[in-house]
Amino acid sequence: QQQVKQSPQSLIVQKGGISIINCAYENTAFDYFPWYQQFPGKGPALLIAIRPDVSEKKEGRFTISFNKSAKQFSLHIMDSQPGDSATYFCAASNVWNQFYFGTGTSLTVIP
Amino acid sequence: DSGVTQTPKHLITATGQRVTLRCSPRSGDLSVYWYQQSLDQGLQFLIQYYNGEERAKGNILERFSAQQFPDLHSELNLSSLELGDSALYFCASSVRAGGYQETQYFGPGTRLLVL
């Protein structure tokens, strides 16, 4: 059973465009929602994270939007660049630091 | 570089065999997590250790086991290997066992191929 559902599976965006990746969860015990970025051959690296008491968090070109009532959160990458081409994972964790990851979105930014 | 190290980088073995994957957490991190990443299953949490003790279990098979040693490095043992065990195995570490906004730092992974 997938605790965190992520879409789309793959995404192709033109340079300068906005990339949007969506995630949904069911378990209300989750209290931390990070996004990880993974390049080929590397381990996932934390990109940005949000708490459930905040509806939006922005760090540079990356923004998380969080909808607690809908149990959904999304990653927006503004002004997407070819260097952003990677696989992005959303995740959710509980107080025991058990992390559940989405299935990943492969982002390709075309120059 | 996350500060988490994993060895070996690559491992090729045969079905039925046993292998050991090793992880050294970041300096100061007491908690170690093991994940399996495959194309069809994504990133699956296997098991967590905190300061030498098992803290949480995820989708870990009975053929798999892990431990964390007094120097805080951890080993993941995979036995009676099957073709379906071929995957990337990641180790991650964090300072504490749980808590608010606890970031996990991932190692570079061990790629296991079972032939």
Biggest interface, which chains? Answer: A-B, 25 and 30 residues
Shape of chain A: globular
Estimated helix fraction of chain A: under 10%
Number of helices of chain B: 0
- The N- and C-terminal alpha carbons of chain B lie at a distance of 31 Å
In sequence order, what are the helices and strands of chain A, one letter per element?
Answer: EEEEEEEEEEE
Distance between the termini of chain A: 37 Å
What is the structural class of chain B?
A: mainly beta
Contiguous helical run count of chain A: 0
Characterize the largest beta sheet of chain A: strand count, sense, and whether it forms a barrel. 6 strands, mixed
Helical content of chain B stands at under 10%
Oligomer: heterodimer
Strand content of chain A: over 45%
C-alpha Rg of chain A, in Å?
Answer: 13 Å
The strand count of chain B comes to 11
Q: Uncertain spans of chain B, ≥5 residues at pLDDT below 50?
A: none
Average of pLDDT of chain A: 93
Average of the residue pLDDT scores of chain B: 91
- How much is the radius of gyration of chain B in Å? 13 Å
One letter per element, helices H and strands E, the order of chain B comes to EEEEEEEEEEE
SS content category of chain A: mainly beta
Descriptive notes:
The complex is a heterodimer of chains A (111) and B (115). Chain A contains no helices and 11 strands. In chain A, strands 2, 4, 5, 9, 10 and 11 form a 6-stranded mixed sheet that branches. In chain A, strands 1-3-8-7-6 form a 5-stranded antiparallel sheet, with no helix packed on it. Chain A is mainly beta. With 115 residues, chain B is an all-beta fold. Chain B is 0% helix and 52% strand. In chain B, strand 4 and strand 5 form a beta hairpin. Chain B is globular. The mean pLDDT of chain B is 91. The chains are: A mainly beta (111), B mainly beta (115). Chains A and B meet through strand 5 and strand 10 of A and strand 4, strand 5, strand 9 and strand 10 of B.
